Request: fold
Amino acid sequence: MNATQISERLDELQLPAGDYAVHSTASLVLRGILDEAGDLDIVCRRAAWERALELVKHGAAKLMQGDVDQVVEVGDDVELFDGWLGVDGNELIDEAELVAGVPCVTLAAVVKFKEQQGRPKDREHLARILLATEGLIEER
Reply:
């Protein structure tokens, strides 16, 4: 999923502004750090979460219980979370910054998440972030 596809998918979802933020790899694509993401992860609250539940009600999505949060899966390429793996979703959304016109969690929040996950793809993404920011983010 490239930046154009991410924007198109967000338009289709019709999530209310101010109640969601794109997280993880998709936010890196929107920032121009990566070319593609496998899926679109979105932290939701209030009206955006209600919209996610409407999609479930109308058969356009499935409600799943994740390890920590509830997740609404829309097709095989979008996951809407009612939190973020134990991190306060309200804080992530409140601190979100517009990237290419899309609310995204801060780059610092993505770095912290990727460091915690520590998967091979996360380590690769951290290296790309470091290159893209020309060392402005301290190595840990």
